[in-house]
Amino acid sequence: MDKEIAELSERAREDAKAYPKKRFVFAQIARYLPQRIFIALVGPRGAGKTIILKQILLETKNCIYISLDTQKPENGIFSFAKQAEEEGVKLLLLDEVHAYPGFEMEIKKISDFLKINVAFTSSSSISLHDSSYDLSRRIRPVYVPPFSLREFIYFEKNESIPPLSFEGLLSETAAKEYYGNTIHSEALFERYLQFRNYPFALGKTDLPPIFRNMLETIINRDIILTGRATPQEAMDMRRLMAFIANSPVENMSYTTIAKNLNITRYKAEKYCELFEKAFVLKRVRPKGTNVLQEPKILLALPYRLLYKNYRDCIGAVREDFFTDSMKFLGFGINYLKSERGRKTPDYVIDDAVIEVGGIGKSPSQFKGYPAKKRIILTHPGKIDALCRPLYMAGMLEKSTM
């Protein structure tokens, strides 16, 4: 085995000792490790995937770690895995696998010809989506999201708060009980919304420059270097981000982007798709069967705040937060259009209509759509037959639903 790789793997093992706390997703990953499953940890840059791999390394025997953005096995990943297996290694941990050209074929060969298990990370789902090899049958993707509000409180305040189910959010009785037990958490909500939803933000102060650099890394490394866009297109993608951030959410569409940036509608859709696969924005489809209707385009937290002051875009940030939370939990989410065809802050989830807004919202926009339950998520929090505190969307957990 390569001596340098072995030495750096031991350093990574030692590094893990500095991180005794584990992300909530770690328990799910640990359940897969004993199985013959290749695990793909996929999520945005800065979500803590590297630390998770190192924590696995610390707790697992016969395991070795390679960071592929700085180390390249001399004869390829497959040859290294074969040699490692011959030396008794049972689990190979590959960090930043998308930095290795042709990694898909290497993983396919390991799956086909070796018994060693593999867990790997990628800060971009672009390569996994676009692979010409059928990796879907060979890997189990595990999404590593940024912090939920509940997880942020766990890491920031060392407080373990029980999760809330989606049914509990809809139930006035259950929501009131949960609110009574967690109302102190609402005081941390606005702090969380402003650049605090990533693990690396813990204990830091000047965060906007870090996120600007991360966005540039996504554009330059995850998109340009992988051949998904040219340097000229990257300039348009930067303009697209600024335009989306500075525009009202309800007015955003491919057509609007194309017109204002002087690009084709095809390019606007392409750039949004690339940014979505890199976890920078998300597209929410309208409710209904008309697939030609354009999606609602929202940014992932906290990218909007790189372009606008929090108080100047608080409504959009609230929608960014809510749609992030639902997407992270794997909900099918759609938005509703008004009777005149305008986009609204009303979302349909599991036959419930949920409106995101401030404390003064009324249910007027709910008219015309049959739903089993209708609620308004408000901030500051209010709770009655119709309203729920918005922060509760950050306290949900999928496994309880």
From TrEMBL:
Record key words, sorted: ATP-binding, Nucleotide-binding
Family annotation (Pfam families): AAA_14 (PF13173), DUF4143 (PF13635)
For this chain, one GO molecular function annotation is:
ATP binding
Q: Which InterPro entries match?
A: AAA+_ATPase, AAA_14, DUF4143, P-loop_NTPase
Kindly provide the name given to this protein in its UniProt entry.
Answer: ATP-binding protein
Q: What is the lineage of its organism?
A: Archaea, Candidatus Iainarchaeota, Candidatus Iainarchaeia, Candidatus Iainarchaeales, Candidatus Iainarchaeaceae
- What Gene3D superfamilies does this protein's entry cite? P-loop containing nucleotide triphosphate hydrolases
Tell me where in this chain the AAA+ ATPase domain is found.
Answer: 35-146
